[in-house]
Amino acid sequence: MKNIAIAIGINQYRNLQHLQYAKNDAQLFSDFLLRDAGFDRVWYFADDSPDIEGVSTEPIRSNLLTVLNDLSENAPSLEIDNLWFFFAGHGIQHKANDYLLMADSNPNLPEETAIATNLILQNLKQSKAKNVILFLDACRNVGRRDGRGIGDRTTADVKKISDTVCFFACSPHEFSYELPQYNQGIFTYALLEGLGIQHKRATVEKLEHFLKLRVSQLAEIAKAKQNPRVVNDSGDKHLILMPKYADKSDLLPLKNAAVKAHRDNKLDLARYLWMQILSIDGTDYEAILEIEGLAVERYKASLPITQDRVVEVASSPEMSMRQVNATTVENRQKLTDTNPLILDLGDGVTLELVKVPAGKFMMGSPDGKGDDDERPQHQVILQEFFIGKYAVTNAQWQAVMKKQGSANCDKEFQGDLQPVVGVSWHEARAFCAKVQQQTGKAVRLPTEAEWEYAARGANQSKGYEYAGSNNLEEVGWYRDNSGNVTHPVGQKKANELGIYDMSGNVWEWCLDELHDSYADKPENLKKQGNQAWGDLNVDNNDNRSRSRRGGSWIDFAILCRSAYRGSGLARDQINGISFRVVFASSS
Known about the structure:
It contains 17 helices and 23 strands. By secondary structure, it is α+β, with helices and mostly antiparallel strands. The model is unreliable at about 300-340 (pLDDT under 50). The protein has helices at about 20-35, 60-75, 110-115, 115-125, 150-160, 185-195, 205-220, 250-265, 265-280, 285-300, 310-315, 330-340, 395-400, 425-440, 450-455, 470-475, 525; strands spanning about 1-10, 40-45, 80-90, 90-95, 95-100, 115, 130-135, 145, 165-170, 175-180, 185, 230, 340-345, 350-355, 360-365, 380, 385-390, 445, 505-515, 545-550, 565-570, 575-580, 580-585. It starts with a strand and ends with a strand. It has three domains: about 1-245, 3-Layer(aba) Sandwich (Rossmann fold); about 250-340; about 340-585, paralog of FGE (formylglycine-generating enzyme) (Alpha-Beta Complex), CATH 3.90.1580. The chain is about 30% helix and about 20% strand. The strands form six sheets. The chain has a six-stranded mixed sheet with strand order 2-1-3-7-9-12, sandwiched between helices. A five-stranded antiparallel sheet has the order 13-14-17-23-18. A four-stranded mixed sheet has the order 21-20-19-22.
């Protein structure tokens, strides 16, 4: 794997007003790539940057063109995985084209003296890098970074080129700002926070969300408005920017993309994505099986069609699966027995469920703790079942229901990996019925007992107040940290079973009717926690109160406790309620 970058920061302009911190931004970004991101080479262009292999890195037009031409001509032989381009300086729009202004550029003659962003894009893509990422902070002036309008043409060009993502420091017709107290531009300061050890935003999706919040916060210091944006050619927000910080929560979108690539017969891309998954979780049995299957398909595709073809495939070198992170063919069956159930929802979208072992637990809260409706605390016995690793997302809703997820809510709730909200209890059950039709798996909403047992960690429980921790900040989005919106699933720490977001982010519908306490709970339900308490044989006009659990992005921490019991009318459609599904092993 080879990772190469170009980082440009220009303070000293010959024909334009000087900048203060663009050079420092590029220097810090370059250092970060080499020190923390594992990049093999960074071409660093700045006012006093040293030559590289006899090539001048003075940030003038001819020097950058030399490096870009070299990349487009020679880089394909290097098999580059990631190629990043960072620019901090002035930019300008001229005749519907976007230009980056180098140290020697004349703003009155951009075609002759500046570099068009579409030329940069063409050269970067000719390198045959698997992923091209651009970070453009080209709207600077003293105190702010000038260049209003840059971005419109670049946006259109990026959308035409596959496997390319562009991060802009601000939106069209905005400025980007510098902060003397940080000796940096706002955008790069936030960018390094997000990519680095402090926040560990490993994917495009997570980094984009972080930048939108953080840049806006920093801009308030300058009493300004600055809104970064991301242009992604094909919506591949699953892309891993920082593999060292990726975790298992990043696997779901990667798996969806890998499945889609396989269906589209893009076998090399599918294998690349599955290998990324293994780099995060070397014991992912599904990835191991898929890579072996792809090896067979790729080998078969390379052979002429003969009677001996099957024999040749069976004995091919690629059929010998190499050891990956100590995971071998011999222990694959063990992995199959302990890993999640993955349902194919179509359109390259999957739904992952985690096995919850049979067992018993004390449901509710003891005297003197919690609310009255959480008592009396009582023992409940449950059989094994599977529960959604995450709340159902907008992408999953779209794949199954064939309509926009969270359609009744503002657009800020409609991201593919955000939980679907604005769905009633009846609609959640309809989703389950559709999934059963598509997959043959009888999924349903969880009972209250199943939900609480899973949230507490089942037989792996450590007795936490919230699902996975006594510190809600670690595991959930709530009133104090959500920014008044839902967040993509899986960004916080999982609980003991590897289940995410059961405290906070969104309330989750359960099957049960609401009851004021557990005092009248039938004895048979204490012995059969997989059965719901209440009438389920109802039509869509029924509006009785149903249980909901977990708390949401707008709630205080106390409502996000694993034992807390919320409720909502069955026909409620609000932006704080979602759901996750279960599948009984005996189904």
